[in-house]
Automatic annotation (TrEMBL):
This is Phosphopantetheine adenylyltransferase. GO terms for biological process: coenzyme A biosynthetic process. It is an enzyme of class 2 (transferase). It comes from Paraliobacillus ryukyuensis. Transmembrane segments: none annotated. Its EC number is 2.7.7.3. Belongs to the bacterial CoaD family.
Length: 163
C-alpha cells in the first residue's frame, strides 16, 4: 500500500521552512502532494498558478513530490486522492492551537485521514510567508529565507507594484 500524504498550504510564497517540512514528509511517505489552497482570510501576492509554478520549481529535485491545487475542503480533496495523511508544519505553540482546531474539524469530516505534525527546524521557527513578503516589499534581503527563484519572483512583483 502506498502511503500518500497531502501537505496543504497557501504557500504565498514558499519559504525554506515549507521546503524543510516537505522534504522531511517525503522521507516518511511514499508520495507527498503539495496542495495549494486559497485561504479566504488572506489576500495573496501570487496567483494560484504562480504559486504552483514556484512550488514545482523548488520541489523538482524531490522525486516523490507532486504539486496540485484545490479550491474546496481539504478532506474532500484527501478523499478524492485517497490520501492516508495530512502533514502540517508547526513553528511554535501558537501554531498548535490553530492547527488543533483545524485537525479536529478535519477529523469530523473524514476520520480515515490522520494528521501528522512536523516541528520546523529551529532555524526556520520565526519564518512565515507574510514576514518574507514584508521584508521583500521594502527591498530587504530574503536570500536566506526563500529559494532564489522565489526571491526573483518577489523582486519582480514588488518592482511592478512600485510603478
Amino acid at each position: 500500500m502506498n502511503r500518500l500524504a497531502i501537505c496543504p498550504g497557501s504557500f504565498d510564497p514558499i519559504t525554506f521552512g515549507h521546503l524543510d517540512i516537505i522534504q522531511r514528509a517525503a522521507n516518511v511517505f511514499d508520495h507527498v502532494i503539495v496542495a495549494v489552497f486559497n485561504n479566504q482570510s488572506k489576500s495573496p501576492l501570487f496567483s494560484v498558478d504562480e504559486r504552483i509554478e514556484l512550488l514545482k520549481a523548488t520541489t523538482a529535485s524531490i522525486p516523490n513530490v507532486s504539486v496540485d491545487s484545490h479550491s474546496g475542503l481539504l478532506m474532500d480533496y484527501a478523499r478524492e486522492k485517497q490520501a492516508q495523511a495530512i502533514v502540517r508544519g508547526l513553528r511554535a505553540v501558537s501554531d498548535f492551537e490553530y492547527e488543533l482546531q483545524i485537525t479536529s474539524m478535519n477529523r469530523k469530516l473524514n476520520e480515515d485521514v490522520e494528521t501528522f505534525f512536523i516541528m520546523t527546524n529551529n532555524q526556520y521557527s520565526f519564518l512565515s510567508s507574510s514576514m518574507v513578503k514584508e521584508v521583500a516589499k521594502y527591498k530587504g534581503n530574503v536570500s536566506d529565507l526563500v529559494p532564489s527563484v522565489v526571491e526573483d519572483a518577489l523582486k519582480e512583483k514588488f518592482k511592478l507594484s512600485d510603478n
